[in-house]
Amino acid sequence: MKCLAASLVLATSLSSHAGDVEVLHWWTSGGEARSVDSLKQMMNEKGHEWRDFAVPGRAGESALNTLRIRALSGNLPDAAQIKGPDIKDWGNFGFLTNLDRIAQEQGWDSLLPKRISDILKANGHYVAVPFNIHRVNWLWANPDIFKDVGVAVPTTLDEFFIVAEKIKKAGYIPLALGEEPWQEATLFDSIALATLGAADYRRAFVKQDSDTLSSDKMREALVTFRKMKAFTDADAPGRNWSDTTSLVIEGKAAMQVMGDWAKGEFAAKGKIPGRDFICVPVPGTQHQFAFNIDSFVFFKSSDKRKVDSQEALATLIMTPNFQRIFNKDKGSIPVRLDMNLSDFDSCAQNSFNAFTRAAASDKLVPSFSHDMAVGRASQRAMFDVLSQFFNNNDQSIDETLRQLRAAVMAANL
Predict the structure, then answer these.
(1) Which one, of 285, 276, 234, 230, lies nearest residue 257 by Cα?
(2) What's the pLDDT tens digit per position in 287-334?
């Protein structure tokens, strides 16, 4: 980042055609692409030309690498998709446009929970605009399997293991999970939230508190995490998340822990929530909300016409109409607390109700497994530690706690 900061002066002097807005993002397929198309159309209708720079790749890793290269060459785009701690990194080094005026005009402080608005700021100023909020701690379930086995969807972690054992004996896969580090980390994310609670979760993964990372609760979360391995299937290695979701859709697996983007896989197969599939919080996390937010930042420019286009885009993103259209396509929910979701599906309505309750009770937590709590280097180290522990019974809990603590604490270096 220090090297990138040196290129800021050059970057502000090089730009695409004035009046255009060049946007770097990683939304390239399905509902994501439809959502972007809606935004492009709205921008064009307002007289601003959207110049697309889409870079595919899981969780935007390729896009962010491209962004760093462009910064070093002094050729930054006008806007880019950035999330979590990366926002403060770019903002603290002076790359990003101050959005306080737009935030004040639209009332962001009252529309957004403080836990959300803090993530969008650097040095106390808004520098990012949020598109949506995803709930990470979702359990997706096939109701036909539960009916066939004669069990109810679990609401606690203890119930999960009782129910999973019966489902396994009936010949189904109790828990659909792809053996990819990020999928395994997503599972542990929700287990940690259920075991630690929101306050200790934030102490561990946001404040990087060493004692909490070494606590008996964290030990318990790891024990529960490894215990779930017995309820996955032998074909898990290398399987992507959407193929894993298909196991639930096809009636081969009973449950999957995954964010609300999984809903798109059910919808693509014509499945109806409440009838063909069930969406409930991960057992033990009913009153908590682990979130993942998509957001845009805008890079400083000396060209007034370009600045006007940037401000038009930032303003448009937070309008109720756009929030509704975008999130219906993407499967997420609006980030504005004042929205009426009566025309959204039941899973989205349940998610929004949980979001507003969690905001009121301070039970919102940034998901560490989806780039919201720690930097990417720390996150990838955590993924490796958790995957090794989950798939290797010889690795001790004490050693895993030490490695996990080291991985998280690296965020302070």
Answers:
(1) 285
(2) 999 999 999 999 999 889 889 999 999 999 999 999 999 998 888 999
| Beta-carbon contacts of residue 113 (< 8 Å; ≥ 6 apart) | 337, 359, 364
Strands 125-126, 278-281: parallel, antiparallel or unpaired by DSSP?
Answer: unpaired
Nearest-angstrom CA–CA distance, 163 and 160: 5
| Distance from C-alpha of 116 to C-alpha of 163, rounded to nearest angstrom | 35
What letter represents residue 233's amino acid? D
Contacts made by residues 161-168, CB under 8 angstroms, sequence distance 24+: 161/227, 161/231, 164/228, 164/231, 164/254, 164/255, 165/231, 167/231, 167/254, 168/231
Q: Smallest Cα–Cα separation from 175: which of 195, 154, 189?
A: 154
Residue with tokens 């014509």: 270
Residues of 96-105 as b/e, b for ≥16 C-beta within 10 angstroms?
bbebeebbee
Nearest to 275, CA basis, from 156, 177, 409, 147: 147
Give the pLDDT confidence of 137-146 residue by residue, as tens digits.
999 999 999 9
What is the C-alpha to C-alpha distance for residues 25 and 60, in angstroms, rounded to an integer? 7
Beta bridge partners of 365: 290
Residue 192: partners with Cβ closer than 8 Å, 6 or more residues away: 201, 204, 205, 218, 221
Helix axes 320-330, 304-317, angle to 10 degrees: 70
CA distances in angstroms from 406 to 1, 367, 376, listed in the order given: 22, 18, 14
Residue 279, SS3 per DSSP: strand
**Which residues contact residue 222 at a Cβ distance below 8 angstroms, ignoring those fewer than 6 apart?**
188, 389, 397, 400, 401
The secondary structure element, H or E, covering residue 253 is strand 253-257
The pair phi, psi for residue 277, each rounded to 5°, is -150, 160
% the chain with pLDDT above 90: 78
- pTM: predicted TM-score of the whole model, two decimal places: 0.92
What is the Cα 157 distance to its own chain's centre? 23
Interatomic CA distance for residues 17 and 15, integer angstroms: 7
Q: Give the contacts of 388 (CB within 8 A, at least 6 positions apart).
A: 395, 400
Vertex 143 angle, CA 137 and 149, to 5°: 115
Whole-number Å distance between alpha carbons of 387 and 181: 5
